[in-house]
Structures are given as C-alpha cells and as structure tokens.
Amino acid sequence: MYSKKAGIAVKDIMSFPVIVATHKESVKSIAKKMKQHDVDSVVIVDEKAMPIGIVTEGDIVRRLLSRKRHTLFVKAKHIMSRPVLSVHKDTDMERAAQLMVEKKVRRLCVVDELQKLTGIVTQSDILANSSYLIGVLREMVDTGYVKEVETVGA
C-alpha cells in the first residue's frame, strides 16, 4: 500500500461504494454485477473486507473468453488480477496518478487505516479532477488572486 501526502486526497475524488465479490463467486455473477451497476470492474475482497484482487472487463475477455472457458464454472480466483494495488484514502491525487503510470494500471483500491476497502479511484476520476483544478487556477489568475508566472525564454 502507498502512503499519504499533502494535496487533494483520493478520498475526495474516489468512487464509492465499491462493487465487490468474493474469490469464490462465479465470473457469470461478477459480469451480472458489472452490468447491473454499470461498472467495468469488481473488487475481490476477503472476509475482512480487505481487497485481494480485482476483476475487470479486460480480465474476463483476456483470461476467459479468449480461452473459450465456460463462465458458469470459472470463479473470480481463476481470473482476478492480483495483487491489487491500494492507496490510503489520504494519498495525494498526484501520487495516485504517478503510481498508476509506474505500475501500468487504470484503477487503485482506496483503503482506510485498517486496510479495509473504502473506495476506488480510476484514471477517469483523476483526469476529471485535473481539468477542474486547471480551471480553478485559471480563475485565480484571472481574478488577480494569484499572479501569473512568466516563463523564462518565452
């Protein structure tokens, strides 16, 4: 798990509640949950609500359909991505974005002090909020609250 840092925290931009399943749940059941809740991933949790893996639409296609397995008999534990990457709910949004790039993932589980799942943050969440921040900064410059910095050599 990755630690806290100052700035906009992932808890302020994360999605919750998170759609979850157990490692024993069938892929067919997980696919139904994805459709019902209009999400592209389900977090796999243990009996203590701690994230242990994640099943994405991509996992289903790559690990199941491409091998022509029958969804009725395959469980989450057979196709989930693990270990799942988690960040503390107070982790800075910028650090979460860096971690996604470093680890080549599109989503991170968000956990509390007890490592229990509290949310999920995706690349889309970060992009949406980055655009918002740029607008706030523009407004601050336009109103004179913050002076625009001159670029050297411009």
What would your notes on this structure say?
The chain is an alpha/beta fold. It has a single domain (10-142), classed as CBS-domain, CATH 3.10.580.10. It has helices spanning 27-37, 57-63, 76-79, 93-103, 123-142; strands at 20-21, 41-45, 51-56, 86-88, 107-111, 117-122. It has a 3-stranded mixed beta sheet with strand order 1-2-3. Strands 4-5-6 form a 3-stranded mixed beta sheet. Helix 1 links the parallel strand 1 and strand 2 (41-45). The longest helix is centred in the C-terminal third of the chain and has 20 residues, at 123-142. The termini are far apart. The model has no long low-confidence stretch (mean pLDDT 84).
Q: What secondary-structure arrangement, pairings included, does this model have?
A:
Layout: E1 20-21, H1 27-37, E2 41-45, E3 51-56, H2 57-63, H3 76-79, E4 86-88, H4 93-103, E5 107-111, E6 117-122, H5 123-142
Parallel strand pairs: 1-2, 4-5
Antiparallel strand pairs: 2-3, 5-6
Number of strands: 6
Q: Major sheet, described briefly? A: 3 strands, mixed
Q: Whole-Å distance between the termini?
A: 42 Å
**Alpha-beta classification:** alpha/beta
Please give the domain count. 1
**What is the gyration radius calculated from CA atoms?**
19 Å
Give the % helix.
Answer: 25-40%
Order of helices and strands: EHEEHHEHEEH
The low-confidence parts are none
Envelope shape: elongated
The oligomeric state is single chain
- Can you identify the CATH class? Alpha Beta
Q: Could you report the average pLDDT, rounded to the nearest whole number?
A: 84
Count the DSSP helices.
5
Task: Return the CATH architecture.
Answer: Roll
Strand content: 15-25%
In CATH, what is the homologous superfamily? CBS-domain
